């Protein structure tokens, strides 16, 4: 009798085992796709479409002293990225922006609506970098890169040409894991990647883009 019962149950048990195996394989595939896949992220500000823009970047004197090329680099990268993806009809090239800021140091005291008129654009994207460091102040031997900025937009062709219509604070970090030293990563690599991540996060605010499902910044 036991043999008959076992013979009856074996096909059913095999089916259950097969389902578990298939389910496990499918689950692993889906988990891998989730880890390695990507998804679209909508723009947080859509007002560049059909408009012209200029990107102005500032930083405190202490950051400018230690990273004199930082503001210019971010301005150029963000400008070029938005030229390609934002749907804007015009822009001021990064080098011209840098020249404007250099030749008119008092521009920071002017309303941004007037700055927009000087540059002949509808929108000013204003980036104020508040923090940029490659190490923690208390540890000079381990990389702990952090960059943060306040990003704002002025719509110069509206009834409120000097007001920030949109504002967003962003922060990025690099490396993604603790314990990296100059022996593992040169300073130039850390600086380059931190600047790239900061520029990405600024530009991504203004157009629908694709991000990995699991992203470190």
Top keywords for this entry?
217 residues, alpha/beta, Rossmann fold, 5-stranded mixed sheet, two-stranded antiparallel sheet, 6 helices, 7 strands
Give an overview in words.
This protein has 217 residues and is α/β, with parallel strands linked by helices. It has one domain: ABC-type transport auxiliary lipoprotein component (Rossmann fold). Helix content is 43%, strand content 25%. It has 6 helices and 7 strands. It has helices at residues 2-36, 61-66, 70-85, 94-103, 112-119, 187-204, and strands spanning 38-41, 52-58, 90-91, 123-135, 143-155, 164-174, 209-212. The strands form 2 sheets. Strands 3-2-4-5-6 form a 5-stranded mixed beta sheet, sandwiched between helices. It has a two-stranded antiparallel sheet with strand order 1-7. The longest helix has 35 residues, at 2-36. The mean pLDDT is 89.
């Amino acid at each position: 009798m036991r043999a008959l019962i076992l013979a009856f149950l074996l096909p059913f048990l095999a089916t259950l085992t097969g389902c578990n195996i298939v389910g496990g394989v499918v689950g692993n595939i889906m988990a891998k796709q989730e880890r390695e896949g990507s998804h679209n992220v909508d723009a947080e500000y859509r007002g560049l479409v059909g408009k012209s823009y200029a990107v102005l970047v500032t930083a405190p004197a202490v950051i400018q002293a230690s990273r004199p090329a930082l503001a210019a680099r971010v301005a150029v990268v963000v400008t070029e990225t938005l030229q390609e993806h934002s749907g804007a009809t015009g822009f001021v090239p990064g080098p011209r922006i840098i020249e404007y800021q250099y030749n008119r140091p008092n521009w920071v005291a002017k309303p941004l609506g007037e700055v927009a008129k000087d540059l002949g654009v509808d929108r000013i994207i204003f980036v104020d970098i508040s923090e940029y460091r490659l190490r923690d102040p208390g540890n000079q031997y381990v990389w702990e890169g952090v960059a943060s900025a306040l990003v704002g937009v002025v719509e110069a062709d509206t009834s409120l040409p000097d007001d920030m219509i949109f504002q967003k604070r962003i922060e990025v970090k690099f490396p993604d894991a603790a314990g990296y030293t100059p022996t593992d990563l040169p300073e130039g690599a850390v600086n380059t990647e931190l600047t790239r991540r900061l520029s990405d996060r600024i530009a991504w605010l203004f157009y629908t883009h694709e991000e990995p499902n699991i992203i470190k910044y």
